[in-house]
Design a protein that fits this description.
The chain is α/β, with parallel strands linked by helices and about 675 residues long. The protein contains 22 helices and 17 strands. The strands form three sheets. Strands 3, 4, 5, 12, 13, 14, 15, 16 and 17 form a nine-stranded mixed sheet that branches. Strands 8-9-7-6-10-11 form a six-stranded parallel sheet, with helices on both faces. Helix 11 runs parallel beside helix 13, helix 12 crosses helix 13 and helix 16 crosses helix 18.
Length: about 675
């Protein structure tokens, strides 16, 4: 093992400051954040940053950190970036007293792998602001704590800051993570800008701040299911038909790959040249086009020849919608996955400005930038409306497109003035077809780092699902078939970026049986340690009225009890680490979401924990969805109660519409 790597981990914050690191222009960096702090608040931000360091270093670091704050709008502590390569090493290479802690170190480094992270030097994994940490001192200190931890301690993470190791017990989580848990009245977008600049909170997104991101693969499967079911909804085959969307960043980069797996023509616009080239190099897109006229010709050819192809347009999505309208190109499916939860800080770019010009305006003239974004949103909505009038099926992809378009005054509202003109994909597709039945994004990581372990787990998972499908009720046969097809093609689709990881949609039965099969294989020495997890975008993990819980119609979509219950329940049922965040996916103040990680090692204790925790992790959400009178969830929770005698859930009594209407 590289002794320098081990020594740097154990060193934590160095006693002697490392030399300053040069700014690497070839790395994809976060945009400059707007200046939002008063002079006194700038001093407070500097005091907060310097408290990580010995007084002897304060004078030299004060000037450096002040320059970072002025230049980038944040204090990242670039000097402290480690010298070693950032990637998920085999678990055996981490200096640790606890195997569980070593697994968490592996996952943290995977989140910051240059092939995975959107802005690796700013510790941002995806979504423009989804941070693992706020600065490099936090990273170094956290890794040191994890290296020192034993199995009777718990590390408490306070919005990126490692509060410290606390005595606990073997069955307790090794790490408890919170991100952005603001007092409700202080959860507006500018509050994030201010308190993040002060260094006292961070935006953990969903799986960035919980160390469970596995690259775009994490959303490819869900997007594939969405695209397949969207075509089913409109009664068309994907072959030769067109899906238009935008965004090629950390999460949205999955869209063209998912379109290809589904079998359609995908056009995905992106304004950032670097990330577009990355996706081309990674094979997540087939072609890159920079000219609209050329794009029209290419799409017409793909339609005529019924190709399956993914095309990136380097430019603004609004120009694509408008050009396709002018050229009378029929769009079958339309959506958007730019980071509109973060519209004023790089999540969405206005037309009429180059990428560079927009970034300059964003930092130096934020009010004008906001006006340009909102003007573009109005144009965007108008163009979408023209296409839907011709038969396009458009859905919001849970990125707050409809929400921000409505705030911009776009023609996006339904006739009642309350609802949006278009449904979210959760309302139309994922909610009723997957979440209500308990199907969501279960994932695992092979801690050995061996591709052969991943291949073996794929085979194990496929065998388990095929066995379950034999006796599954008709209501979930399609979900089972889609996932078996997915896992059989997973190796061929070259989905691994970073760690040797896999994702598939499974219900509570599937998750528990797959995990138990893994645990038995580990016990037999067939594979090595496995790390289980999921996306927070799941059945139970997230309360989000404009995405995950948008198909809840009893009024409770604006409550967050489910996500809080989820993380509390996971923590005492055996999770290795748990996390709860504000802001993931759809915007700061718009969502609360929780997640977990679980290390399984072939032991009887791991078997007991995984059965208890995975059952709760799914059925907590199904019970809430059934109480909201969602038919699929009522079916699923009744079935769960038949399987588990100790489960007793309050069921709703439906009221005839005629009785209510008679009032």
């Amino acid at each position: 093992m590289n002794s320098t790597f081990k020594a740097q981990i154990l060193e934590g914050i160095p006693e002697h400051l490392p030399a300053p690191k040069p700014y690497q222009a070839d790395i994809n960096h976060a945009p400059k954040r707007k200046a939002i702090l008063s002079k006194d608040e700038e001093k407070l931000a500097l005091r907060n940053a310097l408290r990580y360091f010995d007084k002897k270093d304060h004078k030299i670091l004060l000037t450096e950190f002040k320059n970072e704050l002025d230049t980038y709008g944040r204090i990242y502590m670039y000097r402290l970036r480690p010298d070693y390569k950032m990637y998920a090493r085999p678990i055996s290479e981490y200096p640790a007293n606890s195997k569980q802690a070593a697994a968490i170190m592996l996952m943290i480094q995977n989140n910051l792998d240059y092939a995975v992270a959107q802005h690796p030097h700013e510790l941002i994994t995806y979504g423009g602001n989804g941070g693992v940490f706020s600065n490099w001192a936090q990273y170094r200190l956290t890794m040191k704590y994890l290296a020192e931890m034993n199995n009777e301690q718990t590390l408490v993470m306070y919005s990126g800051h490692p509060m410290g190791l606390f005595p606990s017990h073997k069955e307790a989580p090794r790490v408890v993570v919170t991100n952005g848990m603001m007092i409700p009245n202080y959860s507006k977008p500018d509050d994030w800008e201010k308190f993040n600049a002060l260094g006292v909170t961070q935006y953990g997104q969903m799986t960035a701040g919980s160390y469970m991101y596995i690259g775009p693969q994490g959303i490819v499967h869900g997007t594939t299911i969405t695209v397949l079911n969207a075509f089913r909804k409109i009664g068309k085959e994907p072959k030769g038909n067109l899906f238009v969307t935008s965004g090629l960043g950390g999460m949205s980069g999955a869209q063209p790959k998912a379109g290809t797996i589904a079998g359609c023509i995908t056009v995905c616009a992106e304004v950032n040249p670097k990330i577009t080239q990355v996706r081309l190099d990674q094979g997540w897109i087939d072609e890159k086009i920079t000219d609209l006229n050329e794009l029209v010709v290419r799409v017409n050819k793909a339609k005529a020849e019924k190709e399956t192809i993914s095309i990136a347009y380097l430019g603004n999505i609004v120009d694509v919608w408008e050009k396709f309208d002018e050229a009378n190109i029929h769009i079958d499916l339309g959506s958007d996955q730019t980071s509109l939860h973060n519209p004023w800080a790089g999540g969405y770019y206005p037309t009429g400005l180059s990428f560079k010009e927009a970034n300059i305006m964003m930092a130096n003239n934020p009010e004008q930038f906001k006006k340009e974004v909102q003007k573009t949103l109005r144009r965007h909505a108008d163009a979408v409306n023209r296409h839907t009038a011709k038969g396009t099926y458009f859905f919001d992809y849970g990125n707050a497109f409809l929400l921000e378009a409505s705030r911009a005054g776009a023609d996006i509202m339904a006739k009642n003035g309350i609802d949006f003109k278009y449904s979210s994909y959760v309302q139309d597709i994922m909610g009723p077809m997957c979440f209500d039945y308990g199907f969501g994004p279960f994932r695992w990581v092979c801690a050995s780092g061996k591709p052969e372990d991943l291949a073996k787990t794929d085979a194990i998972a496929c065998a388990v699902l095929e066995d379950i499908k034999k006796n599954s009720p008709q209501e979930i046969q399609q979900q089972m078939a889609d996932n078996i097809q997915w896992i059989k093609g997973a190796q061929d689709n070259k989905l691994v970026v970073g760690s040797q990881a896999r994702i598939l949609y499974a219900d509570a039965e599937g998750r528990a049986k797959i995990a138990e099969a893994f645990n038995q294989a580990i016990a037999k020495g067939e594979i090595e340690t496995i790390i289980l997890g999921r996306d927070h975008h799941d059945v139970s993990g997230t309360d989000s009225p404009y995405r995950e819980t948008s198909n809840i119609y009893d009024g409770s979509q604006f409550t967050a009890d489910m996500a809080i219950h989820n993380v509390i329940g996971d923590s005492f049922r055996g999770a290795t680490w748990v996390s709860i965040h504000n802001g993931g996916g759809v915007g700061w103040g718009e969502v609360i979401n929780g997640g977990f990680g679980m290390v399984i090692d072939g032991s009887k204790e791991a078997s007991k924990r995984l059965k208890s925790m995975l059952f709760w992790d799914v059925n907590n959400g199904i019970s809430r969805r059934s109480w909201a009178r969602n038919n699929g969830a009522v079916f699923a929770i009744k079935r769960a109660m038949e399987i588990e005698p100790n489960l007793k859930v309050t069921l709703p009594n439906n009221v005839d519409d005629a009785i209510i209407d008679s009032l």
